[in-house]
Amino acid sequence: MQRIPLIDYVGRPLLACVFLALLWLQWRFPLRRRHFSVLHRLVRNFVLSIPGFAIVRLAMLPIPLAVATWAQDRHIGLLNWVALPGWGVCVATFLLMDYAYWWWHWANHMVPLFWRFHNVHHTDLDMDVSTAARFHFGEIFFSLGFLSLAVLVFGIAPMLLLVFFITFEAETLFHHSNWRLPIQLERVLNLIIVTPRMHGIHHSIVQRETNSNWGTIFCWWDKLHRTLRRDVPQDAVTIGVAAYRDENELTLGRLFVLPFRKQREWRLPSGEEPDRAPQPAQKLAAGPEKLTIEWLQVGEYEVIDAEPAGPGKKKPKEDDQIKHLGKIEEFGEPAERRCRFDISDCDGRNRHNHYAPEHGARNGRQCAENEKQAEDKFNRRNKQSIELGKRNTRRHQSFAHLFTALRHKEFATPGKKKQRTNC
Ligand SMILES: [Zn+2]
Questions:
Q1: What distance in angstroms lies between residue 152's CA and the mean position of ligand 1's atoms?
Q2: pTM (2 decimals)?
Q3: How does pLDDT run across 346-364, given as a tens digit for each residue?
Q4: Dist. CA 108 → ligand 1 center (Å)
Q5: Separation of 105 CA from ligand 1 center, angstroms?
Q6: Please, what sign has the CA dihedral across residues 26, 31, 37, 42?
Q7: Cβ-based burial of 130 (10 A; exposed 0-12, middle 13-18, buried ≥19)
């Protein structure tokens, strides 16, 4: 195997450190409640990813790298034809490649053949940093062809390809992690990059929500295509694919053969199709300022099908703004809010969920107690990050004003028609 110094001596150790750091952060500050054993999932996701890792190192890096060198030597590809300064080539490489990956991720959901393989990634019943490695080797094999083609068409320089690859992988680890970032920090990051809350919605069992947030590094492509959703709080998201709710059906052997079996419809085992209406637009459409304030007030909600206000709508008073902004510290994620799609766990061996009643609780009372204990544990873990958030409220309010200005700009286009939903 030929050595690739930037990957072998820099990229791999760096990604290993990012993985371990995120593992610790998600344990210390969890975002969504876990429902299944972390150790089980870590081992399962890791073993499942071994053939994929091998393909990446033996083929997915060397082949596109050889294509990049070949294209550069023969002056082939978009960036080899356009005269750009060095920094311009770097920026263009990241934008073009990440946008191409947005389309690739879209194709993985929309093309039935590709979905068979990508489905394996989505069947994880909890999502954390280990989910970032849970890819069927078939999907990696297909993406090898896609990456080589993109490198050839765009004329990506070999060195930049490697830098992009390392960044891409680090961002993939980050947005799959179950790390509860302070909401104000996440909002700022989510002006540019894909964040854990945003990607969490992409892993929802509600199909409309899964078919959104396809970005990997930058969140702008979803904005561009109106597929960005931030209107679901994390404690209302149930992770997974509706038709695959039973842990016993997702063992290693079954996951390896899943793409070659008959695919199930997007329905729960009960036959029900999980759904959740997008947040009501009318309520928030009283005016661009009002829309902005509501978005901030309710934490993670953002209405993407909101109708911007027409002229003559009442502007909120300054007092109202302060009142609304003061509520941000609540994070919009009250622990008591329960979701009908939630999976409730009992103890380590006796899990049940609402959609696999055959694995029901042995004893209702015991289950309720365990549920309460799990909730308390989760809340204790979060206390520190919530208090940190409260201390930062003042700083956050200045961010909030920045957001107000930005959102105002975005939604204040006069005469703009109702934006369509992403689904
Ligand atoms: Zn996906």
A1: 25
A2: 0.68
A3: 333 333 333 333 334 344 4
A4: 7
A5: 6
A6: negative
A7: buried
